[in-house]
Structures are given as C-alpha cells and as structure tokens.
Amino acid sequence: MFWRFGYHSTSIIDGLIDKEGVTLDDIMGEDELLQEVKAQGAKLVDYLCRPANLEKLLGYITADDLDEAKRFKFPFVAAEIFGCEVFAICDALVLNRELLSAFWRLLEKDAPLNPLQASYFTKVNCVLLNKKTAAMVTFLRSQPDTVKLMLKHVGSSAIADLILKLISVEDIPEGAGIIKWLSSEGLIPHLFSLLDPNLDPEVHATASQTLTDIISVTYQSFVPPEQLNALNQPMDTIQNAQGGAGTVLIDEMKSEAMLTKLVGYMLDRGAPNSTSSLTNGINVIMELVRKYSSEIEHAEIQHHEFQVQMQANRMGPVLPTPEKLNALSVDLNDLLRVFTQNVANFAELLVSPKSAKPLSEIAPGSQAPLGSERLKICELFAELLHLQYLFTSSPLFDSLVKPPPYVPARVESGPQPTYTPPTTIVVDGLMALTERLVDERVMVVCINHFFVFRWNNFLHSVVYDMIAKVFNTYSYTSSIPTPLALTGPVPSIADIPSPTEASGASAASQSSSQHKMKELRSSVKKLVVSIFKDARLMSQIIEAQHQNDYEVEQPKGVRLGYMGHLTYIADEVCKLFEKCSPELDDELHDYIVSEEWQEYVSHPLRETRDRDRQPLGGARPEAPAGQGAFMGAGSSFSYNAGKFGEESTEFTKPRKKPDTTRDASDDDEEGAAGGGRTLPGEGDTFTDQFARYLCQQVVKDLPDRFMGDSSDDDEDTDRQFMSDLEGQDVNFDISEAIQMDGQFAGASRAREPDEETLSDDMASSKVDGEEETSEPPSRSAGGEPDLAASGASEFVADFESAFSTKDLERALETVVSSNPSAASSSSSTSRRRRRPPPPQTSPPAKTSE
To answer: Compositional bias (Basic and acidic residues) spans (predicted)?
Structure first.
C-alpha cells in the first residue's frame, strides 16, 4: 500500500525521457522497455508516437547496415513494441501514409529476403490489420503492385503467412471485398506459375503449401441452423453465408484453365524438377477434392438439422439452400474432366516413373524403390474413389443429380439472370473417370505394386483403401434398387408447389436419379470385375499367403509386410461375395465358388481372424494352488479375481454343496459370470483357513464360553436367538452342532452365536450368485423366498464341516493352557462389546440341552 502515499519507485524510462539530449537508441537499450510499453505509460507512449521515433523504429526493421551491437536486438525490440498492440502507436503509424509506404518498400528488394526482416515485417503488418483493419485495407488497395511484390517473395514463409492473413480479413466486415481484390490482382495464376518444373523444388513446396493454406483459410465454417436462427439474421444474409460452394479464389483454382496448366506442369518429362511439380501439384488437387467432400458432408448435416426442425414444427432457414445444391452438383466438373483426359498419362507414370533410376545404377539383387511419384498418384486415385463412394451414398444424391431450381440474385444493371438447370453434373464425371480406370488398367497396376513392394506399408494402406471404396460403392448401389426420395428443399413457403406439381417433380427426380444410379452401378461393376479378372486378386492373395508361410518357416523368418492389409482385403472380398453374389454371379461365378478360395477362407483366413481376436497378452493366468502361501497369510487380494486387484473372499466363502440337478449350461453361465474363478472351498486350504477363523471367533469370548461365568443377560440373549431361529422354521439344532468331546465336556456349554455375530459371519462368507443348493429355498408366509433361513442353513452346514477338524481342538487347548490371563482380559472386552438384549414382554422358552 506504499504506492498510495508516493513511495513507489519511479520509472527508469520516464527518467530517461525527462533528461535532455536523450535519444531513442538510449531507450532501446533499456531492459524494462517492453514492460513499460505493455503498461502503456503515458509519457513513453507519447514519446514513441512521435513521427521521428516511429520512422526510426521501422528503420531498425528494414535497415541492413546496423552496428553489430544493434543488428539483432534493436529490430527485435522494435517489432515487439508494435506487437504490444498499443492503440495509440498503431493509430499514429496508420495515419502516417508516408511511413507505411516506406516500410512496404522492403518488398522491392531482390529475393530472397532476410528471414528475420521478413518475419518482423509480417508481424507489424498483422498487428495493424488486427487493430486498424479498414485503414490498412484501404492503404494496400491504394498502393501499386502490392500483390505482385508479395508474390515476388512468396518463397519466404513469412510473406506467405501475410497473404493468408489478408485472405482471412474477408471474414471481418471492414475487410469485405479483399478476396475479390486479390483475385483481380492475379494471385492464383501467379501461384500456379510457381509450380513450373523448371523452378527449384523449394519454390514448388512453398507455392503448394500456400495454395493448400488458401483452401483451408477460405473454407467457410459450418454453423448449425439453430445457431443461425439465434443470430436473428435476415434470410438473405443466412442463405448467402451458407450458399455457394466456395469463394472466388477456390473457384478460380478449380477452373479448367488453371487445372490444365497445372497438369501440364505435372506431366512434363523433360524439365529438371518435374517430379517435384508432380508431387506438389497432386497435393493441391487432393486438397480441392477433400474440400468438396467436406462440403457434401456439411450439406448432409444441414439437411438433417432441417428435417429435425420440420419434425419439431420449428420454422427456420431452408438448408442446404438450392443455390448450394446447384453449385455442389457441378463444382468439380472441370477437375474431373481434365483428370479423366490425362488418366493414361498418370497410368504410364505408375509403370515407369520419371524419377526411376536406370537398371545400371541398381545394385544386383536389389529392388528399385517405389518412389514418391507412384505413391502420390495412387493416393490421388484413392481420393477420387473415396469421392465416388461419398457422392453415391449421400442422402442428397437425388438433389445433386437433379438440383432444385432457384431464383438468381438480381443485378443492378443489364439483363437479369435466369435459372438454367445444369446439363453435366459431377456424377457424370465420376462415371467417365471409372470407365477410364478400367480401360487403362489402373487398379491392376496398383494391386500388382501392392504385392511387389511387400514392405511399403504406405502403399499397402492406399491400395487397401482403393479396393475397399470400390467394393463398398458397388455394395451400396446394389443394395438400393430405388434411391432415397429427396427432391431437395424448396426456397420458401410461398414457392411450395401444389400437390399435383410436387408429385410430378418428385417422380421426375426419382426417375432421373434411378437412371443415374443404374449407370453408375454398371460402371463400378466393370471396375469390380477388372479387379478380380485382370488383377487376379484372389489368386495373388492365396499365393501371398503361401509365400508368407514359407518365409515364416525359414530360420529367423518373419511375416511379410503386407499380411495385415492382406487380411483386410480378404475380408472385403468375403463381404462383397456375401452381399452381392447374385449380381456378380454372371461375371464371377467361377471365382465365387472357387475351391481354392474356400480353402483359404476356411483355414488360413479363419485362423488369422481367431488369432487377431485374442488378447495381446493372452488369457489372464489362473492362480496357483498355493496362492495363499504366495500372497501371504492374511492377504485379501487374489490374481484369480475378475479384475486386477479386486477383493477376493475366496478364503471366507462357504463351500458349495454339490448339486446334481445342474446341467452343463448352468456351469458355463456361472463360470462366465464369475470371471473364470474356481469354486471356493476346494482343497485343504479352505478348511485350514476356516478353522483358523472359527478359532479366532471362539477365543475372543473364551471365558464366557468355557469358564462358566456367563451372565443371565447372555443366557437371555441366547434363548432369544434360538427362539428366533425356531420361529423361522430352521431345521437344525445348534446344541448338537457345537457339542464337543474332550477336556471341555464338563464345562459349560459353548454359547450359541447371537444374531449379530451370525449375520456378520454370513455376510463375510457370502458370494453373490454362487450359493445354490439342491434343496429349494425356504419361503416366508407371503410366498417370497426366506433369505435369512436359507443363509442360516448354509452357514450351519459349513459350521459342521469345518468344526469337525482336529485343528480347532488343538488350537483351543494351546490357548487355554498357555495364556490364562488373555482369557480374563478377553472376557471383559467381550462384555463391553456385547449388544444388550432386546426388550421382551414375556420370558422366552428355554431350549433343551
């Protein structure tokens, strides 16, 4: 609290500023500068906002001739000062256009930029875009060749991040229109030109990464319809936010001109770095396909949410909108068309890649590597086959085949646009691509590579995914003779057609989708037949199994690398034959009924499945016969329990009476329920433990039991306990059960266990679900099972069995003869512990000895 009275320490920075002749260099050398800036001291902030000082701060970042003492520290401190995001400093810098223009002249230097300068430059501009978005966007648009200068240094990761930051500003109202401006400045064509195979691979990697990042940044986040309703946005705003299948930059990437240029770079064999262009170009194409697949999935979620709202009688926006359904139905037409035209060239690269080494450079006895080219091409084919399965199995298939009409947005000038239904849709491109895959034997080559490169698990995973997607697509199309009736949501309630028009539109939509589904099923069936006939899939699986068995039998032999994925592929074949054997019987009858295949399925494949289902560590080991000695005399834990560390009452559970009426099924059920435990009480171990337990119980009350000084209260308690048992119709005699011969015959009879002791003993020896006897359980007057009587009967039976041992007699004789003092102390303790007898209205009847 001293600072309230002016005892706090004065800022060192403020003291320097007050001195005459102090310079910015003097302040920059202070270690507490950044802390003072974050504290936003008024005197320091005013000092830094001076134009001369701002110019010096920016000069520290862009200068190349700083002294050795300032070269690293001053640029870092200057960037961190702007990184503190002090509003006054950012506002002073943005308002000074001359300073900003001079700062952006850093991009006029020749490439490559100093990495530190580029990172500090990006940091300052990102802070300004966050704090003063509208002013910075206006400034950048006013500068000539801003985008070209950034693309000049796009090889620097920091400048690439700045481009992504500009794109992300589109989500802010102040930055609306920035993407259209970047597109008009030629951002996408320039990035595609950087994938020229004559450029360095580092440039290819940076350009490819920037393009994929643009796809990710411009991806519109999905908002559930319920949240959109909660925002109380106008219907037009919601539909514009959710409609459309991409931004301007994404649509430009998917244009036929850009993709043709990119594929030309990828297939150029004469360029020195064509392999790098191929692999990085495939990354861009795969990202476009994945984004389209994600948009279909999001549209399905929107449709599901819309159906839930309709069922709940809640009004909300109709999602997905007709605009989005129309865009999704034609979104990848250009990409599929360009790729279908070049399937033969990609198939040729699968056989003889550009990066393959001559045979003279391969060591004798070694195998040529697969290479990144062939692996990437296989991944691209797998992604397209995955898209085919996703498109075919989508609940929006009918709406994507025949999208609903909508009213285009009106324009301010010129003729108003009208709706034109699409003539070519994505499903047409997928069917054409499938036909080309069959003609060029692409699946045949990929499957052959699977067995040739036996240790390349990356390839094995990709080929398995390709086969699974083809089989799943055909199984789905064969299992649905009539596609789901979904004509697509209507734009608004006012545009709902009459029942006659709706039925006609639904029938037309179903007819069109059924026709497309039939054509798609036919094309996929050709691909399935080619996999079995041309690729000899089943024969190669059997041969690979034999080869693996031979390798395993050799000294130090190991399983081949593809055996795990081979089992998965065999399972997919079995599932296909199980679901679609009638449809495939005309083409693959000999393969379906092949005895060699049936032999493989019934023996090697079945054995592999059984082995894979086993726990990794094997079954839980049973406890040895002498587990009591292993675990200690007083241990209450057993490894034979259902769970590790589970408390086991095996030594205290009563032995089970034999039941000749139980069958084997009952034993199985009991064994499963008990976690594989053995029956309690088997062997001599149980007898010894139970005898020791009874000895402890008897010795605790030794004077009362054997010295003849039991009180009248104790006798009343005993009589009450016996009368309770007689009232429950328990058919046994306690006095006969505990009658003993020997040196204690003349002493007072042993006291029968009272009700509390009996209930505790029964609870400690009880095991749920295992106390079954041959006699039916006793029932009370109401007809319900008398659990107390049945429990008492079980206890007395075990009491008789254990009490007949000689161990108890010897133990009692030893205790009485060797330690009489313990008896007296135990007697006083037992009296203090004994429960008082319950109140009685009449004396109970005595029990005969």
So the answer is: 604-614, 644-664
DSSP one-letter code for 424:
S
- Computed on alpha carbons and rounded to an integer, the radius of gyration of the chain in Å comes to 43
DSSP-assigned states of every residue in 701-746: THHHHHSS---HHHHHHHHHHHHHHHHTT----HHHHS---STTTT
Report whether 316 contacts 309 (CB < 8 A): yes
Gap between the Cα atoms of 468 and 575, Å rounded: 10
- Residue 391 C-alpha from the chain's centroid: 23
Peptide bond into 654 cis (omega under 30): no
Structure tokens at 615: 């726990």
Q: How far apart are CA 662 and CA 76, in angstroms?
A: 85
Range among 517-521, 731-735, 776-780 rated most confident: 517-521
Q: Where are the beta strands (DSSP E) in 640-698?
A: none
Q: What is the pLDDT of residue 364?
A: 55
Tell me how far CA of residue 656 lies from CA of 187, 682, 713, 777, in angstroms.
84, 9, 36, 15
Asked if 256 and 334 count as a contact pair (C-beta separation under 8 A), the reply is yes
Nearest in space to 709 (alpha carbons), one of 811, 803, 833, 830: 830
Helix (H) or strand (E) holding 591: helix 563-592
Residue 137, CA distances (Å) to 88, 169, 198, 283, 500 in order: 19, 9, 35, 31, 54
Gap between the Cα atoms of 262 and 193, Å rounded: 8
User: Which pair of structure tokens corresponds to residue 453?
Assistant: 């490169």
Q: Is the pLDDT of residue 715 over 70?
A: no
Local structure of residue 362 (DSSP, 8 states): S
pLDDT reported for residue 363: 53
Q: What pLDDT is recorded for position 262?
A: 95
How many other CB atoms sit within 10 Å of the CB of residue 434? Answer: 23
Residue 39 tokens read as 């504290």
Long-range contacts from 673-676, C-beta under 8 angstroms, 24+ separation: 673/769, 674/642, 674/769, 674/770, 675/641, 675/642, 675/643, 676/620, 676/622, 676/640, 676/642
Range 753-760 contact pairs with CB under 8 angstroms and sequence separation of 24 or more: 753/721, 754/717, 754/718, 754/721, 754/834, 754/835, 755/720, 755/721, 755/724, 756/835, 757/697, 758/721, 758/792, 758/795
Q: What pLDDT score was predicted for residue 384?
A: 95
Q: What is the DSSP letter of 601?
A: I
Q: Is 302 helix (H, G, I), strand (E, B) or coil?
A: helix
Query: For the residues of 201-268, what is the DSSP string, one character each?
Result: HHHHHHHHHHHHHHHHHTPPPP--HHHHHHTT--HHHHHHHH-SSS-HHHHHHTSHHHHHHHHHHHT-
Convert the pLDDT of each residue in 201-248 to its tens digit: 988 998 999 999 999 887 654 444 444 444 444 444 444 444 433 478
For 135, 664, 686, 691, the CA distances from 682, given in Å and listed in that order, are 88, 19, 7, 14
Amino acid at 712: D
Ranges assigned E (strand) in 438-573:
none
Residue closest to 433 by CA, chosen among 340, 567, 499, 552: 340
Residue 795 confidence (pLDDT)? 47
Residue 134 phi, psi dihedral angles, 5° rounding: -60, -45
Tokens linked to 623:
């406890």
Distance CA 262, CA 195 (A): 7
Residue 406's region, left for phi above 0, alpha for psi from -120 to 50, else beta, is beta
> How far apart (Å, rounded) are the C-alpha atoms in residues 724 and 838?
12
Contact 16, 30 (CB under 8 A): yes
Nearest alpha-carbon partner for 487 in 468, 497, 502:
502
Tokens standing for residue 472: 């799943």
Which among 595, 468, 458 is positioned nearest to 527, based on CA atoms? 468
Q: DSSP letter for 80, please.
A: H
Number of residues that make up the chain: 849
